[in-house]
Every structure is written in structure tokens, then in C-alpha cells.
Amino acid sequence: MALLRRLVTLCTVLACSNVIAADVSTSGLSTSATASATGQVTPLSMFIPDAASRVNLFIGTTNGGHTFPGATIPHGMVKVGMDTDSPGNHAGYDANPIFNATGFSQLHDDGTGGAVPLSLFKLWPFTSCGKGNTFEECQTSIDGRKALRKVLHDGSPDDAAEPGYFSSNLSTNIRVELTSTRRTALHRYTFPKGTKTPRIVVDITNDGQQSSTDPEMELDPDTARVMGGAHFEASFGPGRYHAFTCVDFKGDGYDLGAPKEFGAWLGNFPVKQTVTITQLYTSFTDELGALFTFAPNPNGTTAILARVGVSFISPEQACANAEEEIPDFDFDVVRSTSRAQWSELLGRVQVDPSDVDPEIVDLFYSSMYRTHISPGDYTGENPRWNSTEPYYDSFYCNWDTYRTLYSFMALHDPATFARVVRGMINIQQHEGWLPECRGATAKHYIQGGSNGDPILAEFFVKFHEHAADLSVPADALYQALLADAELQPPNWDLQGRQANIWKSQGYIPSDVWERSGTNSKQVSRTLEYAFDDFTISQVAKVLGRTDDAKKYAQRSENFFNVWNPNVTFPGRKDITGFMQPRFVNGVFNFTDPRHCSIHDPLQSTCFLNAQNHDGFYEGSPIVYSQYVPHDTARLIQLQGGREKFVSRLNFIFDQDYFDSTDEPSQQIPFMYHYANQPGQSTQRSRQVIAEFYNTSVNGLPGNDDSGAMGSYVAFYLAGLYPLPATRQFLLSSPYFREISFKNPVLNTTTTIRANGFQGNPKSGTGGHVFVKSVKIDGKSWESNCFIEWDAFTSGSLIELELTSDINVPCGATSGTLPPSLSTGGYD
Ligand SMILES: *[C@@H]1O[C@H](CO)[C@@H](O)[C@H](O)[C@H]1NC(C)=O
Ligand SMILES: *[C@@H]1O[C@H](CO)[C@@H](O)[C@H](O)[C@H]1NC(C)=O
Ligand SMILES: *[C@@H]1O[C@H](CO)[C@@H](O)[C@H](O)[C@H]1NC(C)=O
Ligand SMILES: *[C@@H]1O[C@H](CO)[C@@H](O)[C@H](O)[C@H]1NC(C)=O
Ligand SMILES: *[C@@H]1O[C@H](CO)[C@@H](O)[C@H](O)[C@H]1NC(C)=O
Ligand SMILES: *[C@@H]1O[C@H](CO)[C@@H](O)[C@H](O)[C@H]1NC(C)=O
Ligand SMILES: *[C@@H]1O[C@H](CO)[C@@H](O)[C@H](O)[C@H]1NC(C)=O
Ligand SMILES: *[C@@H]1O[C@H](CO)[C@@H](O)[C@H](O)[C@H]1NC(C)=O
Fold it and tell me: Does the keyword Nuclease belong to this entry (predicted)?
């Protein structure tokens, strides 16, 4: 209970939004959910008493996953972790032990592309320096100081991580441990026995891109406090940002006293007794910082704590953050508080692990964990304007996350979701448009449309009745959506849309070059704008703005304007009709449907690149020709009916056009639902998991994209797929006999129970996993293909009857198919 009280007070201090006072000491009790006659489920089954213990933070930490395995609280601003000299060190770390550690820095993103973001204010420990072990011999530069990690018998580096904590043993025999609060990191460096000169470097300038300018730094020779900052380059946009730090040291279990030696350094040259970098000739290199020699512990092991506050406002604020959040340098308390927050948050979703491969349980909680790293809660750290509203950052990018991340949050963490939405609305009120892609307070390039729209709409469609309680202003939310939809910003490549031509033309022509940015990817953008407008129509409908609802629903059908029925897949006459680039005069240009796929004869890439005039972003035309989440019925019609639609889906999988690494493919495995073949969706989605996702360090097929992939996998394992901004979820079977979602805002727990569960086929193929019938609170539910949000608001028991027959239909009538706009869905 002491721990718990601590957790609650700390959370008040840290303004963390939604810590439920779950009594950690009783969470070991396991009670089975029981359905009463009325179907109410009481209480939450605690199958997994400590969900945080099931998280593997190293999934996707080599080979391009770019996942962050360091320490953070849920949506923390500070994400403290190891940086390595590997090529793909976007989140700092690489699990391959051939790479050296170069420092332990305070800020990271998770799973991004672009240039290496953040990774700034690195610390580094030395046991000794050079032959003479003098201060001046310390190789302080990033190349001079780096060292390998110790390697375990199995060939992996001696690194360990769990939610809220990271540790590593370096080849120099120094042990490094890291933990954090929202804006402050706490490091512990344990030096080997006999160390006479424990030294620590503070590096002010080396961010992930080594992009710093105008560094400032001052150290205090008595207390060893270091205050400093610099300007750095944004990762995926044209801007720069200014960040600050404040570092303090303390002996762990002994009095550190004043540092024995101190000085600023420049490259590999520490200069004793200097206290600012202005005392050095700084024009020749941009590597700068502070170095200290501390007293060893005369009575035992020398362990030194470093508390590192960070701010985007000022070094003074970095100090204030640190003093407020970690007043007493108590590593164990900070660590256990972070851990308790994770355990409570992850424990809101409970899965029955019986008859399930433990790796699947780990994969589930690890994936769920990664939905709570970004965006980061930077409240109080917005340098551009003052506001009492929350400020979230690291939307990297909404294009990646809108599809699944926020819908997963809606199930168990609407309070955080509401805070993110409030922060986004506040950005729109000050900048004119919702954030699309953003990092370190700087705008980044848009990838698709204005994909803040589906995020706000997802919140409002599901939680409009609670919006006022959650301090989300409905009017302002709607105005923010309208701004995206109607007003063209001067820099539509950073926020908003090409609204003018979208309104006049109904698609983005491939031969109109508008001022600003990347005049490419016009077909993808057309499809994104169409879906964005659909989500606005759903909000308008909730608000009773019938005319707007109709207008935006009509605009959402504009995807049809880039459909060319006459393009045929090379060598496959039966696969006809594709999304294609179109000129302003209405004539279509041609892009090979294989473009950007692994079978593209030209081997083109579809990344953001102004030189590409092909029309497509991170997906081939054949993938984008499936990309109309709100009106698949119309798509089926365009493709020549259900049979053709299904054979096209099969072709996409069988010929490897399904691209597991990029988001435009994410819904495709579930699309058989719309052709009344939900068993095929169940099998395809399970095959995708079996083939591409696992708990190994390379267990991600592409970047995690700020949790986009994590939330996607969590949904697949839960047997659900979301349709953002609607009240429906596509339904499959969970990988568990039972999975339940506790929603603290609605105060409900919803359980999906798979009756007759017999485990999961390893390869994803076949098995007793197909949904034959559904009961909600004891009453039969007509569709095997979707369930309504109402089941989650009321806290229902959803019982699935399973079968081995893959050919089960959605149900008896056409009303049992998931909704589509053109067939009157969503009303
Ligand atoms: C690790 O650092 C050592 C010493 O600087 C260097 O020789 C080695 O090449 C580095 N490893 C990699 C993968 O860069
Ligand atoms: C590092 O070494 C310590 C013993 O000094 C050990 O307890 C720990 O498990 C090792 N590994 C990590 C990753 O901390
Ligand atoms: C070492 O231990 C002695 C005896 O317990 C104590 O008086 C002294 O303060 C300790 N030294 C440090 C630096 O903590
Ligand atoms: C925010 O308020 C503080 C304190 O009044 C002020 O110093 C600062 O300049 C303000 N920041 C902005 C961006 O307006
Ligand atoms: C497709 O071909 C038909 C028949 O030749 C023609 O009438 C129609 O205009 C063509 N459509 C487009 C978009 O090219
Ligand atoms: C038409 O498409 C081709 C092939 O992708 C491309 O090279 C060309 O630039 C396009 N024309 C225009 C005006 O966009
Ligand atoms: C794990 O997933 C990765 C990435 O998709 C894949 O390359 C690898 O083969 C998988 N490993 C196993 C053991 O399935
Ligand atoms: C939540 O529901 C439980 C059980 O129905 C009830 O005991 C509790 O008071 C409710 N809590 C809130 C905050 O409404």
C-alpha cells in the first residue's frame, strides 16, 4: 500500500491523467468472470496479474523495426535509452551486439523513419582514461568513447528491459540502469570494484543527426550541476527545435561531495577547470559537453545516480522538472512507480492464457505496450504558446496511427485519448490546422491527408456523450475538422490539405503543381481525403448537422474519381479496374498496378520524394485499389462483384502484393468480410501474424511507426479490426479463450469469450477458429462479421461459437455484412 500511495501522489505531481488506484497487492487474485442471467460480467478476470511482466521490449530492435526498448512511463516525454552506432538507430538502440554503445540519451521516438530523431543529451561513464588515467586523456567524443556491450552465451548483448526500466553491462564492466518520470530521467552507473576515478561525460550536442547549432552549457564546480541546450534539426520536416537539459549527480549510498575534477570538453579534449563552453574555441567541432571525476565510494561499490531533467522551454525549467518529479533520486521508487503505471494500464485488458502459446501472450502485451509510447505528453513544454490545455507531441505520423492505435485506446484508455484530442484541438486553434506529423515541437511532412480528422472523429463518434466530462469541447472539435476540410493552408505539405482543388475537382490531379512541397502521391492523397471527409460526416451526423453530414458523405465518395475501370493487371485480364493518376482535364495517366510492389519491373520506391510523379505513397496501385475503408461495397461493385473481389484478394496474397511493412495494406486481410467470407479473413489475418510478427528482435516486418504496427497486432490477436470514426468493429476470433477490456471512463468491462476454444493453429491455417455464431449478453446477435460499439459501452459478454468450417457466412441476410456507405451503413 505504501507503494500505491506513492503512485497516486506522484501521479498528481506528474499530472498523469488516469491512474486508477488498483491495489497492486491484491492483483494476484484470480477470479473468473461469470455471466449472470442478465449478462452482466463481474468482476474483471485477473488472468494475468502482472501484465507488464509479459512485455518484451526488444521486439523489432534490429533489422529496421526501430522500436524503443528504453525506459518511459506511458506516453512519457522522456524516453531514456541506450544509443548505438548502428545504421538504423532511429530509437537509439540496436540489439545486434556488434554495435557499440555511444551514450545514454533522454529523448527518443518509437519506430519512426525519417532522419534519426531526438537521441539527445547523452551521458557516458568512464572507469579510467588512457594510459595515465588522467582527466585530459578521456576520449570524450562520440567516436572516442564508444564501447561494446558484454555478450551473453547465446550471443545477445547483456541488456535487459521491462516497462519503466532498462539496464546494460558494458564491456568496460560498468553497469548502466535507467528509469524515468514524465520529463526526467534517472540513470545509475555502477562502476567495477577498485574504480578510483569514476567519471561521467555529459554530451550537449550529439543528437541522432549530430545537427546541433548554438550550444550553451554551464557547469557548477561545487555541485556538478550541468545546465545547457542547443538547437537541433527536426527528423522529417524542414524545422529545427531548441531543447534544454539540467543534470545533477548523487552518490548511491554515499556522499558524493564536490567533483574531484571538472571541465568542459571539445571533441576529445577536456579542459580542466573550465565551466562554460564559451571558454573553449568552439568553432572547429560541434561536439561539446562537460566531464567530471567523482570520488569513489570508500565503503563499497561505487554507484552514481544522474538525474537528467529535460525541457523545450529553458534550462531552468529542465531543473524545475527534475526537482519536482524526482526530488530524492530514489531509483527504486521511480522505477516501481513507472512499472505500477504500466501494470495497471496493460492489466485493463485481460487474456486467458490457457491453451495458448506463451509467446502469443507476450506478443499481445508487447504490442499493446507499444500503443502507449507515442504520442508523448509534452504538457508544459510547448515553446510556441502558453495554454492550460494538454500538449502532446511526437505524432509521427497520424497517417500511420489513425487506422488502429486510437481505436485500441478507445477500448481501455479513453482518458488519455481525450487528452490527446484536446491537445490536437489546441494546436489547431493556434496554428490553424490539426497536427498531422509532428516531432520535437516541429511540423513534419504530411504523408497522406489530414489524418488528424479520423482521430478526432473516432473519439467523438465513440465518446460524444462523455466529451464534456472529459473536457473535450465539441464545437471546437468540429471547427477543427472543418478547417482541415475547407481551408487550404499555405504549407499543405505540413498540415491540412490541398482543399481548394479537392473541392473544385473532386480529386487531386497529377498535373497541377501547387505552391509548397511535394507535388506527388496524388492518388493516395485523393483516397485519404475521401476517408477524412467520411469521418467528418460521421461527426456531423452525431451533432445533428444533417446537411454537413450529407455533404461530407458525398465528398467521401470522390475516391471513385480516380478509379479507372479500363486498366488491367499485366497478364491478368480478369483483374480489371485500378486507382490511377488523373490529369486536371479528366484524362487518366497510367501507373503500372505493380508499381512499388516487390514485383515492380522498375523497382521504384514509393516514399516521400518530390521527384516521384507516380501518384502513390508507401503502397502499390493494387494495394490502394482496396483502400476505401468506408465503402467496400462500392469497391466490390467496381471490381465486378464479390467473386472477382475475392479472387483479387487471393491474388494479392498469393502473389505477394500484400505489403506487411506499410499501413495501406493493414485492412486487406479482413476485407473478405465484405464478400461474406469472414472465415477467409480469420485465416488470412492469422497467417499474417504467423508469418510476420513474433517476439524476436527482428519480429517486426517494418518500422513500428509510433505504435501503428503494435496496435494493429493487438487488434488481430484480439480478433477484432476497427473502422475508425464508426461504431463498428469487424469481428474474427480472438487468440484466447477469453479477452476482456476494462474501460475506466465508461466503468464497464466487456468480455469476448470463445466457446469451444481449442487453441490456435501455428501457421495460421485452418483450425477450430472460425466464428459460427455470436451471442451478446445471452441474446443471439445476427452477424458473425461485426459487433457494435454499444457492446463495449454497456459492458457486455460477447460469446462466440467456433467451428472448423472456414466457409461460415456473416449471417442469413445482407444486413449481416459489415456496413458500407453506399449500402446505407452507419445510420
Ligand atoms: C565499435 O567501436 C570500435 C572501437 O572504436 C570500432 O573498432 C568498431 O568498428 C565499432 N563497431 C562498429 C560496428 O562500428
Ligand atoms: C549485469 O550484471 C549484473 C551483475 O553485476 C547482473 O545482476 C545483471 O543481471 C547483468 N545484466 C544486466 C542486463 O543488467
Ligand atoms: C563510510 O562509512 C563510514 C562509517 O560507516 C561513514 O562514517 C562515512 O560517512 C562513509 N563514507 C561515505 C563517503 O559515505
Ligand atoms: C508563456 O508564459 C511565460 C510566463 O508568463 C512567458 O515568460 C513566456 O514568454 C510565455 N510563452 C509564450 C510562447 O508566449
Ligand atoms: C473505358 O473504356 C470504355 C469503353 O472503351 C470507354 O467508354 C470509357 O470512356 C473508358 N473509361 C475511361 C475512364 O477511360
Ligand atoms: C504520367 O505517368 C508517368 C509514369 O508514371 C510519369 O513518368 C509522368 O511524369 C506522368 N505525367 C505527369 C504529367 O504526371
Ligand atoms: C519473425 O518475424 C520476422 C519479421 O517479419 C521474420 O523475418 C522472421 O522470419 C520471423 N521469425 C520467426 C522465427 O518466425
Ligand atoms: C463502477 O462500477 C462498479 C461495479 O458496477 C461500481 O461498484 C463502482 O462504484 C463504479 N465506479 C464508478 C466510478 O462509477
Answer: no
